[in-house]
Amino acid sequence: MGLRRTRTKPGTTRRVRKLGDRISEARQLRGLVRDPDLNAVEMERQGRRTLTGLWFFLSLGLVFTTAGVQRFLAGDATTEDPLWWAAWTVEPMFAGLLITVLNFEAVILSYGIQPDHDWWRRLKRVLLTSTLAMNVIPQVMPLIRGQWETFNPGSAAVHAIIPVIVYGIAEVIPVIQARQRQVLLLIYQAADTADGNGVEDQADEHDRADVDQPRPVEQAPAPAVPAPAQEPPAVSPPRVPGTALRLPPDMLQAVKDAYTRAASEGRELTTADVRRAARVPEQLAEKIVAELRTHNGHAFA
């Protein structure tokens, strides 16, 4: 069997494929560049590289200033004199004190606290001034003694500039450390915020899923319909039975009116009602009421 050749779109040249790969790589890098953890790692790496370079050049400057201070302090002493050896420790001591103070300053600066004590600034100025003076004085002594031919202006300038540079590097190192710590804290804070938002987004998605998911419809009990109020049955006007009692039309109408009034008041017709309406004897009124009760309220025929 022969190998099956993959079909490509017309115009898909080698250059197009390379550009497509670069675009895909750039899309992946875009997400990585915004990653807080990657930014923290890059910041720490760059800071470590910067501090390593500064410490290296600071050490070179201290070697130079230490030699100048030793020459100033030892003078004409020889190697057999202990002062000649002790003079080598003065400049490292001054530099060590300065670096120790500045390192602590870097720590408090990272928390936004300024070392505003007077002796804090005085100590740094004394250390710088001492190193500068002990390096410059031996270079300008030929001028003081009038030995112009032995004066070297280039050496004097270098001995004056290098202590200032060393002091400046020692000042910059703690500032860089403080700013690096601040940037790392900001990056970690952003990462924590992003993680918190991710948890909230997951909770929101979970809530939205619960909302979107169809839930079984519960059959709500039918509301109880109140029974309609029973109205009193309509009372038809009484009809006096002709076979039992024969009443004149005007008397019959009066009995009907009395019966209607009693029914509207929710009570039964009484003998007094009949007598008051029809003006009949008591016996006849009792018969009329009895006839109505016998027929259970139905109209007379």
From TrEMBL:
Keyword list (alphabetical) reads: Membrane, Transmembrane, Transmembrane helix
Segments passing through the bilayer: 53-73, 93-113, 125-144, 156-176
Region Disordered, annotated ranges: 196-246
Basic and acidic residues bias spans:
205-215
> Pro residues bias: where?
223-240
Q: Which domain of life is it from?
A: Bacteria
Please report the name of this protein according to its UniProt entry: DUF2637 domain-containing protein
Species assigned in the record: Saccharopolyspora thermophila
Q: What is the lineage of its organism?
A: Bacteria, Bacillati, Actinomycetota, Actinomycetes, Pseudonocardiales
